[in-house]
Amino acid sequence: MIDDDALLARAEALLQAYQTAGLRVATAESCTGGLVAALLTAIAGSSKVVERGFVTYSNEAKTELLGVPQETLRAHGAVSEPTALAMAEGALAASRADVAVSITGIAGPDGGTADKPVGLVHFGLARKNGEARHLERRYGPGSRGEIRRRAVEDALGLLEGALA
């Protein structure tokens, strides 16, 4: 993914826009395992915008690093709107960033259920002094790599939209 010219160009434009706006970014990633942060930091000068990234693959990490309430995880599961929102808000609170994006989902090939199939991904976007937003995607069956790539693309889209 880091060698994808189109994604790199998009990430570079995003970083430039955030730098111009004087904003910093944090990521909170589960199913993408840090791919958004890796893409952004593949660009020279990204340290002016990327404040930090959290890879919170386990529920314990979501709670310990991002402050996701255990009750939220018990009631809704890791792959849910409340968890995605709590992850984004927690990343914002645990960093010096102005904007945080979170990703939690089921990349497969296993782990899906009838209610939460492989390809289900929830995103959160939190901005200082702003209301958190949620996005749900159901990418359908596909390879683990395809699902993760599409999630990275949608995370970039949320970060782009936060500038509007």
UniProtKB/TrEMBL annotation:
Keywords per UniProt: Hydrolase
Q: What class of enzyme is it?
A: hydrolase
Carries keyword Electron transport?
Answer: no
Please list the residue ranges annotated as the CinA C-terminal domain. 11-161
InterPro entries noted in UniProt: CinA-like_C, CinA_C
Q: One GO molecular function term?
A: nicotinamide-nucleotide amidase activity
Q: What is this protein called?
A: Competence damage-inducible protein A
